[in-house]
Design a protein that fits this description.
There is one protein chain. With 157 residues, this protein is mostly helical. It has a domain at 16-112: Orthogonal Bundle (Topoisomerase I, Chain A, domain 4), CATH 1.10.132. 62% of the residues lie in helices and 11% in strands. It has helices spanning 8-69, 75-109, and strands spanning 135-143, 146-154. It has a two-stranded antiparallel ribbon with strand order 1-2. Helix 1 packs antiparallel against helix 2. The protein is rod-shaped and about 95 Å long. It starts with 7 loop residues before the first helix and ends with a strand.
Length: 157
């Protein structure tokens, strides 16, 4: 053996470690994608709440303004209603900006340019849906510090 040759076992172990590192990176990217999508959907729900609140606060401001015009309330109540409306409108803009950041991150994680990439707004439950018949995957330790994927059966069977 020359000074630059290595035992076959070392080469195999090195390849296995590299494959495990690659799988770890892939799983990390999938986890980041899931977190960004969950956050995006949470922001969709928050945006809906804020939009509904803006409509309600606008009605409250209109009512308060009419009551002020009729002499039933003082000017400070009108200003308070206006401030509440403006603050909620600003929050809605902030949530929209945060959603855009999440959407751009999802585009990059999926290998697409953010320009032109769009995910439709969707409100409702954030709970994951379990589809019967889809196989589950379990990570099993094969050696210290190394993991591998292993199919463990399908749900609903």
């Amino acid at each position: 053996m020359g000074p630059h040759s290595r035992p076959r076992g070392f080469v195999v172990q090195n390849a296995q470690a590299s494959a495990a590192d690659l799988e770890n990176a892939r799983l990390s990217l999938h986890a980041e994608l899931a977190l960004d999508l969950f956050d995006l959907r949470s922001l969709d729900n928050e945006r809906k709440i804020l939009e509904d609140s803006v409509v309600a606060y606008q009605k409250a401001l209109d009512l308060t303004q009419n009551r002020y015009n009729g002499g039933a309330v003082n000017r400070s109540e009108v200003e308070e209603a206006r401030t509440q409306l403006e603050a909620t409108s600003a929050q809605a803009v902030d949530v929209t900006d945060l959603r855009t950041q999440d959407q751009d991150a999802i585009a990059v994680l999926t290998g697409q340019p953010p320009e032109g990439f769009s995910i439709a707004y969707k409100t409702g439950s954030l709970a994951p849906v379990v589809h019967p018949g889809r196989c589950s995957i379990r990570i099993a330790r094969t050696a210290p510090g190394h993991c591998c994927r292993r199919e463990t059966g399908c749900l609903g069977q």
